[in-house]
Design a protein that fits this description.
Blueprint: H1 8-23, H2 31-55, E1 64-72, E2 77-83, H3 87-105, H4 113-132, H5 136-145, H6 147-157, H7 162-191, H8 196-199, H9 206-223, H10 232-239, H11 242-267, H12 269-295, H13 300-326, H14 333-368, H15 379-382, H16 384-397, H17 404-419, H18 421-446, H19 453-456, H20 463-481, H21 484-504
Length: 505
């Protein structure tokens, strides 16, 4: 197979979308057929992503598996797909998490199961498209379109307040996306091209850069989400079904971080350097304040949702520190690179850990029909294997060395020490705060004496619940013990970004 001509990326993107359309025409009562189709059409992208990463040349920062075709010729919009060392990791994360969700989702009972599974296949394809698209309009279409199936997942299969949660989620994200579209159109008319890499070569004055930067920041910051535009996330998580929470926390939030690396760093470098004193405190507030909010939660889902906001604060901190370091007279290329790589590792790690924790909450909820922490106690007495797995993921969430949760945070901390010791001290507080709410959650839910009759009657894990958790556990351990497996893939691409930024300053 000649990968220069064979459309591997198109096959990767459109296979799950095709499966999603196929499921719409299958009777919702034919559960076995629905399950089979769902597994097949999410397994193919997983195998393709593994094949792509196997033949991927990590020694080069150049784009690979390029597909470039004319789409809307009059407007110079192309169907341009390609990947580098950064995007390939998010592709693999998407296919792994999607496969886990499809497998786990059959443990939950619901109506219209064909449409439910179909929605997740649509999301998978659209996410893969966003990570592969290098035409800005194509990226925008994928970026926006993924809102629709998630809107349906929460709005149809969500909790009692799902209407409020979906409308809030839709308004927040749509507002940000409008600003992003305006910024893209400005850049496209200036560059006479919609290709993202053509935007990198533009000469833009500082004032214009600031407006562009803020437009992109609001759009991507809402997606991540950053403080103070984070309030839609806890509501969405609480009302979403467990599988919806998994895809939202594990992958959808990462699109915002990925887009920041693609747009903010190379296009609006001067604006980022000018505004970094404003940006970094936003990340530190997310890390510290939101962690304190997480400690106060009584709903397990809300606690993990706020934990996600705090951990994604580390991602934005790693990205914004690049601006700080580049603008420093004593600039150290390697330290800036460590910060950027730490942000990427943190996104991958959080994707795996948050997915596992939301699955754990889903397992508890399926048996007790409540997410309130005070209503659970002593689950470890009746479900020891499940409790051991949940404790592992809670420890990983708190940054335990030897797990993936430690690697990304440690790398960002190294970068912050070189940037400003005060930033490092504040950021390091997350190690204490994350341990506080994570272990406190584990203590209240898993330990103690089981007095609730529902808890005492809880049954052991089924295979469709056990295997997703074991898969995620293995991946968290692999990244924690051998982080170079990821770092070797992204090294050339992150190096190139840092060099391109310094060349512009």
């Amino acid at each position: 197979m000649d990968t220069n001509y064979f459309p591997l990326l198109s096959l990767l993107i459109w296979t799950p979308i095709l499966g999603g359309f196929l499921l719409l025409f299958i009777n919702e009562k034919k559960t076995y057929i629905i399950k089979t189709v769902g597994i097949i059409f999410t397994s193919i992208p997983l195998l393709l992503s593994l094949f792509i990463i196997y033949i991927f040349d990590s020694s080069s920062y150049s784009l690979q598996f390029i597909e470039n075709r004319k789409w809307i010729e009059n407007l110079n919009i192309n169907y341009f797909l390609a990947i580098d060392g950064i995007s390939i990791l998010f592709i693999l994360l998407t296919t792994i998490i999607s496969s886990v969700i499809i497998f786990f989702s059959f443990s939950e009972e619901r109506s219209q199961n064909n449409k439910f599974i179909s929605s997740f296949l649509f999301i998978e394809g659209l996410l893969l498209g966003a990570f592969c698209a290098l035409d800005s309009i194509l990226f925008y279409i994928f970026f926006e379109s993924m809102l629709i199936p998630l809107f349906l997942i929460i709005g149809i299969w969500g909790g009692p307040n799902r209407v409020y949660a979906t409308i809030k989620f839709f308004i927040y994200t749509l507002f940000g996306s409008v600003l992003m579209l305006v910024a893209i159109l400005y850049l496209a008319f200036k560059a006479n091209s919609f290709l993202i890499f053509d935007f990198y070569n533009l000469n833009i004055d500082l004032n214009t850069q600031i407006f562009l930067f803020l437009a992109f920041l609001i759009a991507f910051g809402i997606k991540i989400p950053m403080w103070p535009v984070h309030t839609w996330l806890p509501d969405a998580h609480v009302e979403a079904p467990s599988s919806g929470s998994v895809i939202l926390a594990a992958v959808l939030l990462k699109v915002g971080g990925y887009a920041m690396i693609r747009f903010l760093l190379p296009i609006t470098t001067d604006a980022g350097i000018y505004l970094h004193d404003f940006l970094i405190p936003l990340s530190l507030i997310a890390i510290i304040y939101i962690s304190l909010v997480a400690i106060a939660q009584q709903d397990m889902k809300k606690l993990i949702a706020y934990s996600s906001v705090a951990h994604m604060g580390f991602v934005t901190l790693g990205i914004f520190l690049v601006f700080n370091l580049v603008g420093n007279n004593q600039f150290n290329h390697d330290i800036a690179d460590i910060g950027l790589q730490g942000a990427i590792v943190q996104m991958i790690s959080h994707g795996l850990i948050s997915a596992a924790l939301f699955i754990c909450v889903g397992i508890i909820y399926s048996r007790t029909k409540t997410r309130m922490i005070d209503d659970q106690s002593g689950i470890g007495q009746v479900m020891p294997i499940f409790s051991a797995l949940m404790i592992f993921f809670l420890l990983a969430n708190s940054g335990l060395p030897g797990t993936s949760g430690f690697v990304g945070e440690f790398m960002v901390l190294i970068s912050s020490v070189q940037s400003n010791i005060f930033y490092a001290i504040l950021a390091s507080m997350t190690l204490v705060l994350a341990a506080s709410y994570s272990l406190w959650l584990g203590k209240r839910v898993l330990f103690g004496v089981a007095t609730n009759k529902i808890v005492l009657s809880m049954k052991a894990l089924r295979n469709d619940e056990l295997w997703p958790l074991l898969t995620l556990l293995i991946l968290v351990l692999i990244i924690g013990i051998k982080p170079e497996l990821i770092l070797n893939i992204i090294n050339e691409s992150t190096n190139h970004i840092i060099y391109s930024i310094t060349d512009k300053t």
